[in-house]
Design brief:
There is one protein chain. By secondary structure, this protein is of the alpha+beta class. It is 31% helix and 26% strand. The chain has helices at 8-18, 31-40, 50-64, and strands at residues 22-25, 44-47, 76-84, 90-98, 110-111, 114-115. The strands form three sheets. Strands 1-2 form a two-stranded parallel ribbon. The longest helix is centred in the middle third of the chain and has 15 residues, at 50-64. The model is unreliable at 1-7 (pLDDT under 50).
Length: 117
């Protein structure tokens, strides 16, 4: 749907209500709409090339999305004995049941089906 430049002024009011920006494609804001947007702190972005619009939207959305954290079990081991190391630190003596070779990963300690660390 193409939006004419004359109808951008009601869009400023709508954008202000939702705290949003106005994106126009192949249009230009009239003086009244630009002044109302500036007074209300609303950004008006106009584009003539669709690829520029898509690139800017991707950049804006990538900053809003939280990263997805995935946990993959690479192996498991059973702690047989805990050894005292220097300065009050302890280290586990483990029997490895299954592992992924060469993987450097974090460890999750589970005791009685409860995650301890």
């Amino acid at each position: 749907m193409r939006v004419s430049a004359a109808s951008l002024n009601p869009n400023v009011t709508l954008a202000e209500g939702f705290n949003a920006a106005i994106i126009g494609f192949s249009v230009r804001a009239n003086k009244e709409a630009a002044a109302a947007a500036k007074a209300n702190g609303i950004e008006i972005a106009t584009y003539n090339i669709i690829y520029d619009l898509v690139d800017d939207i991707k950049k804006a959305m990538s900053g809003l999305l939280a990263p997805t954290l995935r946990e993959t079990m690479l192996g498991n081991a059973q702690i047989l004995e805990v050894f005292n190391i220097s300065q009050g630190r302890q280290g586990p003596g483990c029997r490895v049941h299954r592992r992924h070779r060469g993987a450097r990963a974090n460890v999750r300690l589970i005791r009685d089906n409860v995650v301890v660390q």
